Amino acid sequence: MSQTAAKLKIHSNTLLPRLTRLNDMLDLDNRDGAECEKLLVAMEIERMKNSDE
Fold first, then answer.
1. Which among 5, 24, 32, 40 could disulfide-bond with 12, CB atoms 3.0 to 4.6 Å apart, if both were Cys?
2. In sequence order, which residues have a C-beta less than 8 Å from that of residue 11 and are 6 or more positions away?
3. How far apart are CA 11 and CA 35, in angstroms?
4. Alpha-carbon distance 18 to 47, whole Å?
C-alpha cells in the first residue's frame, strides 16, 4: 500500500478511500487477483493506444 501511494505521489491515507471508490465504480473485488490482473492489462492496453496517437 505504501509503495503504491509513493509511486502515485499521494499519502497512503488518501489511497485507501480512492481504491474503495474505484472498486465500487467498477464493481471490482480488489481481493481477487484475477480481477486486478484484468484491470491492469486493460489499463496497459489503453496506455499503449494513447501513446500511439
1. 5
2. 5
3. 25
4. 20
Please write the tens of the pLDDT for every residue from 4-14: 889 889 998 99
Of 45, 23, 41, give the one whose Cα is nearest residue 32.
23
Q: What is the 3-state secondary structure (H, E, C) of the chain?
A: CHHHHHHHCCCHHHHHHHHHHHHHHHCCCCCCHHHHHHHHHHHHHHHHHHHHC
How does pLDDT run across 17-28, given as a tens digit for each residue?
888 888 888 888
CA gap 11, 2 in Å, rounded: 8
The Cα–Cα gap between 38 and 40 comes to 5
